[in-house]
Amino acid sequence: MTDFSATVTATAPSASRLDAQSLIAFSPEVAAARDAGRPIVALESTIISHGMPYPQNVQTAREVEAIVREHGAVPATIAVLDGRIRIGLDDEQLELLGRSPDAMKLSRRDLPFALSAHRIGATTVAATMICAHLAGIEVFVTGGIGGVHRGAETSFDISADLQELARTPVAVVCAGAKSILDLPLTLEYLETHGVPVISVGQDHFAAFYTRDSGLKADFRMDDAAQQAAFLRTKWALGLAGGAVISNPVPVSDEMPAVRIQGFIEQALAEAQAGGISGKAVTPYLLARIKDLSGGASLVTNIALVKHNAKVGTALAVALNQQR
Ligand code: PSU
Ligand code: MN
What we know:
The chain is of the alpha/beta class. The chain is built from 14 helices and eleven strands. Strands 1, 2, 3, 4, 5, 6, 7, 8, 9, 10 and 11 form an eleven-stranded mixed beta sheet that branches.
């Protein structure tokens, strides 16, 4: 009988070494926080690479991280570099991501490609949720989530963020979703997939640049302890998925609704005329609205992310206390 055991042992270990944990690299700060059982807040990177221009993107990312630290948690900005999911980025990595034209926008479908092909990748809400969950992080702070696009009944353009919210147990703190999207349909879609939308400080779902979408959120919970109790209960029941924590932009940073609506309509019309499709749609609209508003939308965008960082950090601290 031929003995194949040598060949088997020679090949098997390398195949079995490729598990999720071997694809993750923690920064020293995040690794220390994990060892100490401290609260950690995940932060996305598509907002850095595709959501804001350089250098405001890198500057904002650092300031948001500082807010998380100030309020008692450890920030973990997530991206793909050198074939690893990076949980926590150093200055050099953040800079690379913020100014590299090669940075890919990674959603669920793209993660294996960027990792296996060693590409530079920024994670969207969907991909950041996946990576945060693999890293044992329960709270993730961003600007706005993707949603059902206007005209989705013919384009089928529904962000993978919504499916991810239905399946991956991470709470996403955001300023709602932009009205470049169809917000009523976005809420319908979330309802169908069992994703709770929790509003902070008001009854209505937030609309990113403006506080009020005119649409009621499912639940209002102003208190981090209340939000944490809700999430602990959801997950104790074995209910899959996360939750949207909708935190409206502060009044002082809000944009006038009529003004922003005009820019949104124009950007949408230009996107359609230019045949922009697929993953390019959202970055195109964000950049156009920024230009049309003379940079005003960027100021609001930065302010709301910082506000979300405070609310998200309070939630991470509360979840840690209710462990
Ligand atoms: N909405 C924003 N700012 C953003 C994004 C959405 O207000 O930066 C980014 C996020 O990374 C989000 C992604 O996950 O766009 C959604 O892209 P799409 O619509 O292609 O799914
Ligand atoms: Mn899309």
